[in-house]
Amino acid sequence: MIVRRYVVREMPEAVASIRRELGQDAVILSTRNIRVRKWLGLKSERRIEVMAAAKEDFAASAGANFGQALKKAMSEPRDVFTPAAPGPDAWSELTSELAEIKRMLAENRSKPTAPPLTAPEPHERWRAFLLAEGVDSVLADRWARMAVLGAEEAASATGPKEQLIGAVASDLGPLADPAPIRRDSRIVAFVGPTGVGKTTTIAKIAALHVLAGQRRVGLLTTDTFRIAAVEQLRTYADILNVPIAIADEPDDVPAALASLGACDLVLVDTAGRNFLHGSSIEQIKRMLSPIEADEVLLVVSLTTKPADALKMAKMAKPLGVDKFIFTKLDETESVGMIPSLVALCQWPVAYVTTGQNVPDDIDIVSVRDVLQAWKEARHDG
Ligand SMILES: Nc1nc2c(ncn2[C@@H]2O[C@H](COP(=O)(O)OP(=O)(O)OP(=O)(O)O)[C@@H](O)[C@H]2O)c(=O)[nH]1
Ligand SMILES: [Mg+2]
After folding, report:
1. Cystine design at 275: which of 144, 192, 297, 312 (Cβ 3.0–4.6 Å)?
2. Which residues form the AAA+ ATPase domain (predicted)?
3. 200 CB less than 6 Å from ligand 1?
4. Residue 44 pLDDT class (50, 70, 90 cuts)
């Protein structure tokens, strides 16, 4: 019979040591709270003293591993002594005590892990989601609040994602509806920063109208700023077999437009410039002024940083922008910029483009359709 004394901070620590050293059949003889002195006797700390017994030394029976087990046991701070052996009654009492401890430990292990105490509030979750999607911070806060309120009122007839989509769409009102080029618009100008896809989008729209065969399309380019820009548009004009005119200066515009007099839809390409510079906006404005476009569409790439896109959109206001075209949806997974810019600028969406293919990769979609992408987003509400 082996009896050992263990001084531990918590009971499970003692049970683990007893199992390891005295084996599965060991029994706990007694437990009591004690205080041990620390810091040269100036302080004391609470500990539990556990007396355990086994019929034989488990470590000794481990044979070849005994040396290792002994080294480990000796390196652990504990006192060991051998009192008189308990009688047969004490054995059965102690065995049932150990069985009870085993049962409690097993019960503890099977308990589900408690949820984190700091789970964010629904409002905070939605706000974080909208911010990650590129929504402006003031709007993210507003739409998150609306979604939470909507959820309370709807008593969860719909899922949380639908409530968010519903909140954004209802806040946008008619701005959430698709707004393609109007049938009564004859001259439509496309403006936007460099490389966002203005010329490609014009080619897509021209091609769709040519294929539909309902309107005679003409192209006018004012982009003589970039080498090969005219050739790029001319190539599309040749493929589609539509007339093209070029205006180098504002004074060239009347003659250029006159050459397209037979067309009932004139799509105007402009030079891509740095929209953060007021001087660039001024140049485009000077060029657009004699054109007197029925609609001005601001082309914004969805790969632009949302804060920059907002700055550019604000800069573009003097150009008389009516609607947005969002390009390169295929190159991003975040669509938050769409409702965000629509709400902040109060311009609806004419088209969304989804790739480089002319004319296939363009769609007339509502903001609501775009928001449906949130349903598939990683955040599961
Ligand atoms: N992935 C992707 N690429 C696009 C999309 N639209 C246009 N592009 C590509 O973007 C690049 C620039 O397109 P352009 O049409 O020349 O852009 P732009 O705004 O006219 O450029 P600048 O006239 O130089 O300002 C080209 O390689 C296009 O094929 C789109 O929806 N998705
Ligand atoms: Mg271009």
Report:
1. 312
2. 184-303
3. yes
4. confident
